[in-house]
Amino acid sequence: MKFDTVLMVDWSGGNDRGPTPKKDSIFAGVARNGIAQEPVYLRNRQVAEGWITEFLRTEQAAGRKVLAGFDFAFGYPMGFGEVLTGSDDPFAVWDWFEAKIEDSPKSNNRFDVAGEINALFPGVGPFWGNALKRDVKRLPRKGSTREGHGLPEKRAAEEAAKGAFPVWQLSGAGAVGSQTIMGLPVLSRLRKTCGASVWPFEPLTADVALVEVWPSLIGKVVAATQPDDRVRDAHQVYTLARAVSAMPPDELETLLDVPATPEGSILGLGHEKLLMKAAVAPVQAPPLRNDCFALPPGVTWTPVPKALAHLRDNLSPVTGSETVPLHDGAGRILSQDVTALRAHPPAPNSAVDGYGFAGPAEAGEHVMTLLEGRSAAGHPYDGTVPAGHALRVLTGAVLPQGVDTVVLQEDVNVTDKCIAFRGPIRLGANARKAGEDMAADQVILRAGRLLTPADLATAAAAGVGELPVRTRLRVGILSTGDELLAPGSKATEGQIFDANRPMLCAIAAAWGYKVVDLGRAPDDRGQLRGILDRASASCDVIISSGGASAGDEDHMSSLLKNAGSLAMWRVAMKPGRPLAMGLWGKTPVLGLPGNPVAAMICALIFARPALQVLAGGTWSEPEGYMGRATFRKSKKAGRREYLRARISNGRVAIFPSEGSGRVSGLSWATGLVELDDSAREIRPGDSVRFVPFGSFGL
Ligand code: AMP
Ligand code: MG
């Protein structure tokens, strides 16, 4: 079972805990693809319910499937429901609590409700523990004074979970009874408002699954990785969310496969090893530093190679990892080295159709006894071929014992019993050695590699059926400007069509990323801020175009500046006005120029390698080729220039206009001419460097 998002909630039975994060309050941990976000502090149950409801709705609207875990019992020991509601339906118990419980940040009626429930049972109990000064009718203060209520002390789950507290205890260190009573009404409402499925009572068919969890199952990892600046409860949900979201779907399926008793269960019980494995070995990308785009101060114009080196050295992967079937691997980035599971070829075999024997065969005539039978691909010969004998072998057939050399069938005369041919034939001729291509356990493909169709063949040949890959980088594409209109719509003279977004979306898709079309932002700071807030939740990186300079309407750069992370790059390059880069929260934003020609060229030169690194790939620079120019050009020193170009009759031609407003020149071109920083007088026939769009992955 696959969930896009895992939410883990550390619940609390207590009252409001104030504005700053404290222990024993409510925390929510969110993780996707094995990467967890900083947990959210929720000061009381009312705030928590609002936040969780909103969160689940947002996820549903985005089409994401959520597993939402809560650390309190979803059910009571066998027999409880019948007495309370007259049925063993666990949801009847939820409804009962939803109707009875009154809750506010400062007080609630849980002890009175527990006393009321005890009144339904014979003897004393089952609930006990009272944190109030006043006595509560029929609710004993001590567990030891209970007797004769007739219910088991623990659910089967608590019996199995070492150290788990019984649900009857409502107060005292470690007690979970109160948070269960105070949690079930909230779950009951969430179940209805979000249409959630509840584990293990019903099949998880809805896009939200509510699941009981107990972070102590991975307590060792939590303790060992606890950072100083994170409350323990927060770190528990952080670690558990990350672990569950990092689990392979089939392992999670194993955890979820429990009987649907009215008691419920705890996710991972009996499979602690799987849970621990996922908790210990997550792919957790380190957050980017706030100054990751900041070029050294005092530099006015940065040469392109310096700017690129800066991206290479300061960015790091932000993607998680997952396993995909080999078939789906092309275009993905390997998250780990892949090793050959067996040698290729696995056994010596024949490279041709012919006759196998023990070589070599000296110069001169050879007559050999032909054995009955043959070795064909997929049908090996299981006998031994004695010296001086030969066996019919076909291409790809395993060479049997006694055969190391093959003579081509075209060079042989055959009778029923014998073959005759002329030597010399060297030892090993026409035979492939075991492992000559790949040895078992040899690394065949390196982490960071963008998998090609050929790589699938290589991995398949070495017996690999699944590939560890990075999760797809989610790239948000945003256009900015009041003048922009959707292509094809009715426009006034002052309006222009949004040319960048379709182009940049297609480029990001061609690079193998998950494209998130963020639409168009007007030249309005407030609206742009809202768009960036929402986008940073659904994207790993945002690429915008327009509004990136320092003008009145350049809101992208002002917002990044106010966020304290703007880096304005003045790169010594034409085309390309300043590039605005920064972090919006933790999400990198690359602000490209608005002009489509500059936007595309800056995307190819800067966004491509930057995204490669963020996606977990290896840094690479585009391959260029020298060719003879058809054109004349006088170039100034001090900046790099890119000209729209194509190969025509084996020579490098450029688009007749260098005007950066001429979008059609991008379609005319099949690549770029790259001229370095020096001054140059180019004449027809001179050698220039041409970089085809293919070298940029298009
Ligand atoms: P700006 O950087 O916002 O000042 O934009 C520079 C130029 O590019 C202006 O002429 C804009 O109208 C134009 N422009 C900006 N965004 C786009 C776009 N998405 N499609 C086409 N032209 C654009
Ligand atoms: Mg603009």
UniProtKB/TrEMBL annotation:
Please indicate if the UniProt record lists Magnesium as a keyword: yes
**Metabolic or biological pathway:** Cofactor biosynthesis; molybdopterin biosynthesis
Q: Which Pfam families match?
A: MoCF_biosynth, MoeA_C, MoeA_N
What domain of life does the UniProt record list for this protein's source? Answer: Bacteria
As for family, the record states: Belongs to the MoeA family.
Describe its function: Catalyzes the insertion of molybdate into adenylated molybdopterin with the concomitant release of AMP.
**What protein does this entry describe?**
Molybdopterin molybdenumtransferase
Query: Per the UniProt entry, what species is this protein from, by scientific name?
Result: Yoonia sediminilitoris
